[in-house]
Amino acid sequence: MEKLTSIHNQHVKNWKKLQTKKYRRQTGMYLLDGWHLVNEAVQSGVQILQLIGTSEQLAAHPDLNSLTDEVYEVTEEVMQHITDTVTPQGIAAVVPLPDAHKVPDMESLHGGWLFLDRVQDPGNVGTMVRTADAAGFAGVVVSHRSADIFSPKVIRSMQGSQFHLKLYEGDLAKWIEDFKTVNAPIYGTQLNPQAKSFRDAEPGKTFALIMGNEGQGMSDQLLSQTTANLYIPMRGQAESLNVAVSAGILMFQLNKNL
Amino acid sequence: MEKLTSIHNQHVKNWKKLQTKKYRRQTGMYLLDGWHLVNEAVQSGVQILQLIGTSEQLAAHPDLNSLTDEVYEVTEEVMQHITDTVTPQGIAAVVPLPDAHKVPDMESLHGGWLFLDRVQDPGNVGTMVRTADAAGFAGVVVSHRSADIFSPKVIRSMQGSQFHLKLYEGDLAKWIEDFKTVNAPIYGTQLNPQAKSFRDAEPGKTFALIMGNEGQGMSDQLLSQTTANLYIPMRGQAESLNVAVSAGILMFQLNKNL
To answer: Which of A130, A155, B20, B28 has the largest CB neighbor count within 10 A?
Structure first.
């Protein structure tokens, strides 16, 4: 076990750099901050590359040493520096970045799927992945020009749901085409005259739901590929719902037959 | 019209202080930032006490001058200072703080109501008020020790919904008692053996839904007062849903008969 006390140490600098998308891609690793996420990773059989803890946390949990050969004892100051958390729990782990660039295969074309089209806010993306997990969805595909799914804020909002379902980045147009080959409905979420109330949607065991960008909604290209558009009837004077709230309402309607 | 260019001007200092709960209470005023909120206030007949704009915005909308005698032209720097927004739209208004300390009356005991029990996050509180508006609820009552409903972050998340429904602070125990006198169901949201699936709830035109604190859920006292507890069946491995997402799923189920 190595003890690190300075934020200028090269290991510490590298962990800090994992906050950037570029360095995560270069190294193929990302950081999990806190007990909940580290435990979720361990329980899911994810390889722990490096374990980072304060002296108290490492002493209180001697079993952690068996997880990896690379254990680092750090100060609270170092922990704060690498996690960007005001009161970190004193435990973190570096784990492999999954290969998210998945091309759909037949095995994937089953179950409920959530497609995110250029959703910008990391909290929204993370919350929707967490909600998809709770709704029993099989997976989430995030389009290019969305918030990066392994950024610290998305990781925090997902609360470990990346270990429970399939999480990919990809070309949604291609995914939609493949879902169509198995006759699975693709539900868009743009309000237009042909849209039908979400209460009337009765999908089977395989379908996809597309949520669009916070300000602009879904792209026209994707919209032209949907089999139906769903809307949530608004009763008050509010003009719209938060995208993560809308996604929750829709997913817990569509999951009835999953 | 007065022109203000310094953040040390007394007016500017006072507007900045409206970001604190204490000063909002002292003065009985709060600040609306941006076109959407200012327009919502005007359309709702809310009195504009002071109008604050950059020279471009005031020049582009000469009709604004008729709204109030107190119009202030400020620099973009001043606007940024008072709104805490990186790229403010250049328009803001000071409006009266409604008297939110409402004791329930017979008129209020009608429609769908959302009760928030010590919800801490301003974004969650604001999003739930906005969702209640979209769901056609009559009002929202926020308990003491919740996020302040007129703080800048709550105002931003509400997106003007405070002008569309009744929004009060109050003693939820008292509100519940009064709803019981008209035999309206009070739905709690704590998972326990007696809880029933939200899909089986069929309220009439008057009911209340209680959402609890993000970490601790509802208080035991309120829980003992509910007529039923609702839960959202989780299908995946996620342990919980974001409180604002849960509230959205529940409100758009309960509003079917509103």
So the answer is: A130
ipTM of the shown complex = 0.91
Domain assignment present for B205: yes
pLDDT for A198 beyond 90: yes
CATH code of the domain containing A188: 3.40.1280.10
Instruction: State pLDDT tens for residues B42-62.
Output: 999 999 999 999 999 999 988
Residues B17 and B36 in one domain: yes
Q: β-strands B2-4, B50-53: how paired?
A: unpaired
Closest listed residue to residue A230, CA positions, set A200, A198, A182, A208: A198
Closest Cβ–Cβ partner in A164, A248, A258 for B249: A248
Domain identity same for A178 and A61: no
Contact B131 A245 (CB under 8 A): yes
Of B89, B48, B45, B90, the C-alpha closest to B71 is B48
Per the CB < 8 Å rule, is B164 touching A132? Answer: no
Interchain CB contact of A132 with B (< 8 Å): yes
Parent domain of B48: 2-96
Domain assignment present for B110: yes
Mean pLDDT of B30-42: 95
In a domain, B101, yes or no: no
Once rounded to an integer, what is the mean pLDDT over residues B128-135? 97
Domain final residue, candidates A68, A96, A124: A96
For residues A81 and A135, state if they share a domain.
Answer: no
Compute the average pLDDT of residues B117-137: 97
Contact B131 A242 (CB under 8 A): yes
Chain B closest CA to A191's CA: distance in Å? 15
B191 touching A (Cβ < 8 Å): no
For residues A62 and A121, state if they share a domain: no
**Count of domains for chain A:** 2
| B239 → chain A, closest CA residue | A134
Residue B100 tokens read as: 């939110």
Whether B142 and B120 have beta carbons less than 8 Å apart is answered as no
Residues B37 and B90 in one domain: yes
pLDDT for B2-21, tens place per residue?
999 999 999 999 999 999 99
Report how far residue B171's alpha carbon sits from residue B144's, in angstroms, rounded to the nearest whole number.
Answer: 7
CA-nearest residue of chain B to A197? B252
> Is A211 in a helix, a strand, or coil?
strand
Partner B contacted by A162 (CB < 8 A)? no
User: Within 10 A of B7 (CB to CB), how many other CB atoms are there?
Assistant: 16
- Which CATH number goes with the domain that contains A30? 3.30.1330.30
